[in-house]
Design brief:
By secondary structure, the chain is of the alpha+beta class. The chain has two domains: 91 residues, no CATH class; 139 residues, no CATH class. Strands 7, 8, 9, 10, 11, 12 and 13 form a seven-stranded antiparallel beta sheet that branches.
């Protein structure tokens, strides 16, 4: 038969200065307690009993010291019953009772069925990032990703007006160099080069298909939101109807009772 490990537990206390007690002496009427335990859980329970028997506060606690059969300190019990391993520094100690819960792997998020597709389009200044769908299509690119105008990393932003027929118009052209809006000459230069590239890109059927799919997803997302709002409103209407029905019953009962005599 395997022999159970035995631990020696010493539990003590001191006065709490915040309560006007002498910190160099035990609380009046208390005694040091030594007990044998066979587990860290047992040590925790013994300390909780000692604490509660004497009505000790946190400021009275000097800890429960756990030693193994050879007299080596293997753990300490806190006021709340938590058991920590022994160590020269607090940072070296680890909780051994209650045992720490296993760390759960982060849950993977379900894929967003409405996530829009992106596209990168090459230009002489560097690639630009296209996002959106019909009526809400934006091209943006930051200089750190390689969009360079006149040798300076720059940021491009432009809105595209697109429908099934293709690119109808562009607007809100903006080119920033190191966070500052550039002069019109630079914007005109970038626009004269980039706009035809965007128009050609949109004219390709496989690229137009991206925008169509994105538009469908956006409509589906909005439909889902509308369905949720409708369901919430229907529940609210049903709740109000129940209230009206209940109050009508109350009114009927009051009418049946007739006027009360004075």
């Amino acid at each position: 038969m395997q022999r159970r490990r035995h631990y020696d537990l010493t539990i003590d206390n001191c006065g709490d200065p915040d309560k006007g007690q002498d910190p160099d002496r035990r609380v009046y009427g208390t005694k040091l307690r030594r007990v044998g335990v066979v587990s860290f859980e047992g040590a925790s329970k013994a300390c909780e009993e000692y604490r509660d028997d004497y009505g000790l506060g946190r400021g009275n606690w000097t800890g429960g010291i756990i030693k193994d059969g050879k007299g080596a300190v293997v753990g300490y019990v806190e006021y709340n019953g938590t058991v920590w391993s022994a160590g020269p520094q607090a940072a070296d100690r680890r909780r051994i009772w209650p045992e720490p819960a296993p760390v759960e792997a982060p849950r993977e998020r379900a894929p967003d069925p409405y996530k829009l597709e992106d596209a990168y389009i090459d230009t002489p200044f560097g690639p630009v990032h296209l996002q959106g769908e019909f009526d809400r299509c934006v091209v943006r690119e930051k200089g750190r990703d390689g969009f360079v105008v006149d040798g300076v990393p720059s940021t491009l932003s432009v809105w595209l007006d697109i429908d099934e027929s293709g690119l109808k118009a562009t607007s809100h052209w903006q080119v920033l160099k190191e966070g500052l809006i550039t002069q019109d000459g630079n914007v005109a230069l970038v626009r004269s080069v980039v706009e035809p590239i965007l128009r050609d890109w949109v004219s390709e059927p496989e690229n137009m298909a991206i925008l169509v799919r994105n538009t469908i997803k956006t409509q589906q997302r909005m439909m889902k939101a509308d369905e949720n709002r409708i369901a919430a409103m229907q529940a609210e209407i049903a709740s109000r109807q129940d209230a009206v029905t209940r109050l009508q019953d109350v009114l009927a009962d009051l009418s049946n009772d007739g006027p009360k005599p004075r």
